[in-house]
């Protein structure tokens, strides 16, 4: 339409009609409700709401019956009403009626003018927008008009006014064209209203029912857009409307001439209507076919409901909108992401209004995913952060033209230049994660030479992550998670244990799961490799270890993570940053009570690396069984070897790979120096080595200390609070007989007549020679009956593999049961036991040990 065009009076008369009567119809409460009452604020989808446009407006109580009627005060007071066509029409009608009364009683103009302004009461009862036309709207205004003389303060004016209006009785108008201007906005034309002829009763107390149908034509579209945007920005403090009309009056059939009328209305901020409260009752994202054969887009269906509290009825045609999201900064232009159209909207008085909106997202603009200046976040990241945190971000909705829609051009022109910020419904993701598990866990300790402050100086964790996440009901898209990375706080009993930092993208795959109850979940699997674990609280870590060692049940760790996700959609791949994720990881406890027996360690090889007079440095190959579900890589770890609270040595492992199940050829370095803590330590050491050589079950304590893991001292300090009981490994000496693998003495030959004996000794050392400098031994039959005694001071060597000793002199226990058994076994074999004290020497290290052997096969020879 052409802005500012005014329809002619003749055209208006053919389109409109007026009806007035002197009857006083009974109206119910709804009929006397003001045309635009105060708006209330109702909760929207996800808890959003729309506030009053006037930010500093104070709360107001509901209108009382007296405040529902429109009155005219003295000429010096400012009139206030509501912005919009209902106010313009009602105010104009009231002004015309007052002028009619004043002019109709021209012989006492001052008194009658005072009377008319104070006594006139207009009660609007209904406003319906009959239709939307090519130039504006057709509206029907229904109201009750009367003069109430009791409202006039001056007695003289009241008496004169009542008399004058009684004489006049009724006043009428011809059809009239009213123009409304905005003087503070270059006096632009807001619009015109074509009012049909009507007649009112001006006798005090007589009610006239006014029923007017009028054509409301749009004026200057640019001016309307300006004031609309100012209102939407909350900057509209006051607005002054000026209505102008030439009114032709008559009293009965007597014409009273044509009179020019100018009426000014000032609208205060607290009388400006609010944006209607609304609720997004349905929001659905789904895949939809695009314009091409194989092309797909993302469709969005939204249902918005609001309550029309006004007596307004209209059918709104299809409307088109662009949806835009905020850019990096407030001064940057918004980014268009979607287009939407509405279904035709039927608006009925004082009833729920449902608006169905259908939109499509055809592509993801580069500006939406590009990182903002001096930041790693993009506008999409900022938008999603608010959405996922339940903080509704604002989107901008701007009207647009829809080709072939049939919507009047003037509506599209106005809407296309008006942008309304709308809170997008956010949601909390507290219940997003249904299940979070970490399996196939693999720990890796850092290089001992690494700087503790570097990433290489932190222990790492690898594992298979499985996340079962609930998909929001409004998200019905075909999503495929391809990669993930995250930074996660690890907590135990709500206290922070440490931080897992998955810096590199990890490959992932996802599966959509339709559940029986109708819920939809997404199962995401990913293998996280070598993720640095920074332990931040030693006390919390100690508590976790204590629970793992002695709790006897799963230890539950909480994960509070910010996850970056690469998601493949029909529009391409998106990177979602800082998706809040919470989950729980059950950690299996360690079988501490049965650990010594479940480890089942066995020594396969011993090598002497260095000796001193009080210490020996040994390297051993050990086979063990890992009874836990965890694996680990250990570049370096050292611990004290403790017995009865006394440190007797140190054990160190380097570059060890611990897997589940059986672990073979585990290289352990042991520094054996029990004497450094005095005679008590030496005695403990002697007993341990003697029991070890005697194939006895030996239990030792491994105790970590601050330097156990040099690059992570906090881990060593935490582990030092616990003693780990382990079984000393069994000797695994060469033998075809499994029962002989742990025996230091294998075969013995006793020569009865020469009173000598020889033995086959199997050294535990495969590369080093062991010297026996003194042997003081006694052989027994049936465990307790002595057979003979050996006391030999000549050193001899025990080389790697089996070594036969020289003939050692035997002092027989003549007359004993044991000696008798030997004589009876002459030429055969006899099982004997042995107890001995032996002085051994390896390099510079010398020690006297004891030995107990049982079931030694002895050949008895002449």
From TrEMBL:
<feature type="compositionally biased region" description="Low complexity">
    <location>
        <begin position="31"/>
        <end position="43"/>
    </location>
</feature>
<feature type="domain" description="Plant heme peroxidase family profile">
    <location>
        <begin position="261"/>
        <end position="461"/>
    </location>
</feature>
<dbReference type="InterPro" id="IPR055011">
    <property type="entry name" value="Tag1_C"/>
</dbReference>
<keyword id="KW-0812">Transmembrane</keyword>
<dbReference type="GO" id="GO:0006979">
    <property type="term" value="P:response to oxidative stress"/>
</dbReference>
<dbReference type="Pfam" id="PF22786">
    <property type="entry name" value="Tag1_C"/>
</dbReference>
<protein>
    <recommendedName>
        <fullName>Plant heme peroxidase family profile domain-containing protein</fullName>
    </recommendedName>
</protein>
<feature type="compositionally biased region" description="Low complexity">
    <location>
        <begin position="1"/>
        <end position="13"/>
    </location>
</feature>
<dbReference type="InterPro" id="IPR002016">
    <property type="entry name" value="Haem_peroxidase"/>
</dbReference>
<dbReference type="GO" id="GO:0004601">
    <property type="term" value="F:peroxidase activity"/>
</dbReference>
<keyword id="KW-0472">Membrane</keyword>
<dbReference type="InterPro" id="IPR046368">
    <property type="entry name" value="Tag1"/>
</dbReference>
<feature type="transmembrane region" description="Helical">
    <location>
        <begin position="83"/>
        <end position="108"/>
    </location>
</feature>
<keyword id="KW-1133">Transmembrane helix</keyword>
<dbReference type="Pfam" id="PF26150">
    <property type="entry name" value="LEA-2_4"/>
</dbReference>
<dbReference type="Pfam" id="PF26153">
    <property type="entry name" value="LEA-2L_5"/>
</dbReference>
<feature type="region of interest" description="Disordered">
    <location>
        <begin position="1"/>
        <end position="78"/>
    </location>
</feature>
<dbReference type="Pfam" id="PF26174">
    <property type="entry name" value="LEA-2_1"/>
</dbReference>
<dbReference type="InterPro" id="IPR059065">
    <property type="entry name" value="Ig_Tag1-like_4th"/>
</dbReference>
<dbReference type="GO" id="GO:0000329">
    <property type="term" value="C:fungal-type vacuole membrane"/>
</dbReference>
<dbReference type="InterPro" id="IPR059066">
    <property type="entry name" value="Ig_Tag1-like_5th"/>
</dbReference>
<feature type="compositionally biased region" description="Low complexity">
    <location>
        <begin position="66"/>
        <end position="78"/>
    </location>
</feature>
<dbReference type="GO" id="GO:0020037">
    <property type="term" value="F:heme binding"/>
</dbReference>
